[in-house]
Amino acid sequence: MPKLAIEEALETLVLNDRDKRVITLRITELLREYKGRSSRYSYSFNTLRILITVGSLIVPSILTIEYSSGSTTDGPRMGMGVFWVVWIMSLLVTISNGIVTLLKIDKKYYILNTTYEHLTSEAWQYIQLSGKYSGFYTPGQEATHQNQFIYFCHIIEKVRMKQIEDEYYKILDQPHSSAPIQVSDSLIPPTPLKEVFAPEEKSELEVNGEHQTTVKKIYLSTKVAPEPSD
């Protein structure tokens, strides 16, 4: 594959040897990969869609030839020819539609082309130090290719992972909560042992002519009954 214009632009950046190596091994390889895949899927998608569209229009048109041929001597031969042409065209349309559905060529066509254009746009913004690479991540510092390099790599990897999740399987991160565990009763420590009480016993007392209700809990045990086994 001939060298892309964006590859030549990336090679002119002022970076240390390690970061230049990363540009060569990762960034340019990703651009080449998505360029090749998007081109292949574009060719396959357009070819199959043309076959499906054109074939779906031609088959009904050919069927009318048999009725317009009249009672000529070549009628049976023409009818047989029309039959095989219609059969082949219908088979091509069905196979093309099945391939598009089975391999999800239409979905990958849109995803790969969108991802390639996104990567290209991010790379050109980084080369030109424009957009988010103009100092947005490093306020108070002059934007250079060196101090913006880590943010550029981070964005590229995010775009890459987004494409992988869209094409294959979406990875759902488990929620991580930093809030402490809330205990319903602060007097009971979070241990497997809990106090077990008998049903409350209520009693009424008369104090200065007023009735007051007192609640008494009878302590039974600190062990929790074992859970039933399967």
Structure commentary:
With 230 residues, the chain is mainly alpha-helical. It has one domain (5-167). The protein contains 5 helices and 4 strands; from the N terminus they run αααααββββ. It has helices spanning 5-11, 17-68, 75-103, 105-128, 149-167, and strands spanning 196-197, 201-207, 210-216, 219-221. The strands form 2 sheets. It has a two-stranded antiparallel ribbon. β2 and β3 (210-216) form a beta hairpin. α2 (17-68) runs antiparallel to α4 and α4 packs antiparallel against α5 (149-167). The longest helix is centred in the N-terminal third of the chain and has 52 residues, at 17-68. It is elongated, with a radius of gyration of 36 Å.
- SSE order, one letter for each helix or strand: HHHHHEEEE
Quaternary: single chain
- Would you identify the regions where 5 or more consecutive residues have pLDDT less than 50? 177-197, 219-230
Count the E strands: 4
Tell me the major beta sheet: 2 strands, antiparallel
Count every helix, treating DSSP H or I runs of 4 or more residues as helices: 5
Compute the average pLDDT: 79
Radius of gyration: 36 Å
Number of structurally distinct domains: 1
**Helix-and-strand structural type:** mainly alpha
* Strand composition percent: 5-15%
How far from one another are the termini?
63 Å
Q: Which bin fits the share of residues in helices?
A: 55-70%
Shape: elongated
Strand order, main sheet: write it out.
1-4
